[in-house]
# Entry
Amino acid sequence: MRILVTGGAGFIGSHLVRRLLSSGQHQVVNFDALRYSGNLTNLNTVSQQPGYAFVYGDICDGALVSSVLRQYRIEGIINCAAETHVDRSILDPESFARTDVVGTGVLLEKGRQDGVKRFLQVSTDEVYGSVESGLSTEEDRVQPRSPYSASKAGGDFLVLSYWTTYHFPVMVTRGSNTYGSNQYPEKFIPLFVTNAIDEQPLPLYGDGQYRRDWLAVEDHCAGIEQVFFHGEPGTVYNIGGGNERENIVVAEEILAYLGKPKSLLRFVSDRPGHDRRYAVDSGRLRQLGWRPIVPFDEGLRSTVQWYREHESWWRPIKSGAFREYYEQVYGRRLQQAG
Ligand code: TYD
# Structure
């Protein structure tokens, strides 16, 4: 199949591109705007492969999207292009509405006009909002609480409306917190791993007892692939790792793997609107034959090892514009924490 993966230079996108190409059965066009978290070096191992092409572009650019769909005779679209970090959405909500809602709308409409056969929207379990207990199913109410999750929810609704209105074969996946190699170090796990390597403080929001369900990026991509090829159009599929942990437990595990002291932990003032817990029921996807296979402790250990061995990947990131961002989000918090 000829597949357009948007955001293919990002974290989940680049893992997905490599996975799709490894089967030898698909041609993949990676369409990416290479914003701050996009990194083409994530694709060094496949960049010369005959089934791979890269196009620089923004999903909001309808004329370019249309011409790429035609030029490469694209049959399926997987939309991984998104603004994804909650803390950034608090600083700059507009860019989230632009990419995650408007961009998704442009991509959908151009795909529909071009007669694309399948469209998969990569979304997030955060659209369900904070769940104090139990597991969110796909039928649960969507109650997003951050500009990030609200923008993703808006995108999801648009996507699903295309099935109801046009019978355009769309699917939505809602993955839980994903971790692994090549993740931009603003997210919890890579931030804490790289800070710990440098013996810098690990800023835990609030009481550190917020809970997330951790999903290895390999399991997440396997789920996306399963839904893309075998999912029912018009349907949402949750993808959960089944590894629910308190943040402080994950932070301590990272320190233990690196042999660093717990004194690096800092309890800092909380994120506004911080969701206490996410957890999803993946039963629908399991019925398609998928299940997560990476045990969390092993996945976390190998992720820590990857960051240890790939300083040349993350050090340039952390020394650039990231510093300004870090100061904005954490400067005062860390000062107050002492
Ligand atoms: P994050 O990786 O930002 O994912 P999300 O908020 O989308 O779930 O954060 C995961 C959890 O870790 C979340 O409860 C917030 C917390 N966290 C911290 O305590 N400190 C940090 O510096 C970051 C980035 C996150």
Summary: The domain at 2-179+213-239 is CATH 3.40.50.720 (Rossmann fold). The pocket of thymidine-5'-diphosphate is lined by residues 86, 126, 177, 187-188, 191, 203-205, 210, 212, 247 (CB under 6 Å). The CA atoms of residues 224 and 302 lie 22 Å apart.
